[in-house]
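Reviewer 2 asked us to include a model.

Predict the structure of this chain.
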Amino acid sequence: MNDYVIETKGLTKRFGEKTAVNKLDLKVERGEIYGFIGKNGAGKTTAMKLILNMLRPNEGEVYLFGKKNCESSLMKVGSLIEEPGLYGECSAYENLKRFSYLAHADEKDIPSLIELVGLKDAGNKKVRSYSLGMKQRLGIAVAMIGNPELLILDEPINGLDPQGIKDVRDLITRVNRERNVTFFISSHILSELQKIATTCGIISDGVLLDEIKTSDLEHFTEQNIEIVCKDYQLAEKVIEEKFMLRTVTGNGKLTVIDAGDKACEINEALVTAGAGVSFITPVSEDFETYFIEKTGGGENA
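Predicted model (C-alpha cells):
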C-alpha cells in the first residue's frame, strides 16, 4: 500500500467562469520533497489552499495521511502560504512564543527552532529589521511549531537573493533529512527547485500535466551532441548510417539528436571516415526546456 501524505482526486476549484484548479490528481509520498512547479497564475496557491482546507472545492476530494481531509490530519501539517504574517516589532523568539500559544504548542522547542533556521544570532532583534530571507526562514520556523510531519510552503524562495535562496534550500533539505519531514513546495524558479525536489509535478492552467521523479529526468530530456567539423555532409552520412541517429545542421555546427553517451564512439567513427572533427561535446536540454515544452511557453493569466 502506498504511503501518501497528500492525495487529491479530481480536485476542482472555480471562481466564476475561471477554473483555477481542474481535476487535480496528485500524490505526495511520505519523506519526499515534492516540487509543485508552474508559472504565475497556474493554480499552485489555490491548490495548496484547497489541500489545507482554506478553500472549499467545487468537486473532488483531499486525503491527508490516508484520511479524508479532517481536523486531526491537519494537526500534522505546517504551512507557509504566500508570505509569513510576522510581528515586526517583536523578536524571533517573541514571534514564535505568540504562535506557539495560538497553536497550543510547547514553548520549550523555540530555542531549537531558532537555531535550526539559522537565526540564533538575530533571535533578539526586531523582525522588521530582518532581510526577506531571514523572514522566510522565521516563517518556516513558525510553520514547524508543533513538530508537523508535513510542511506546505508556497513560493518560499520567491524574491530572495542567491544567498537567501541557498539558505532556505539548505534548511529544507536539512529538515527533510534530519527530521523526516515531508515537503510540498510550490515555485516557478525551476532550476532551484530541481536541486532539492525528489519529485516534480508540473501544473498549467490548473491542470497537472506531469509528475516526474527527479532521478528520472534524464529520461525525459534529450542528450544531444554538438560537432564542428570540415565535412558536414560526410559526418551526417556516417552518423545516420552507422548509429541510426537524427542530425540537424545549423549555426556552424552539427547536432546529433538524443545521442546519449555515444560521443566517443561518434568521434572515433568520424575521425576514421575523415570528416575532420575539430570540436565535439555532449549537451543536454535542461528541465526548464522540458517545462516550457510541456506548458506551451508564454505566461498564464
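The chain is about 35% helix and 30% strand. The longest helix spans residues 162-179. We have added this to the supplementary material.
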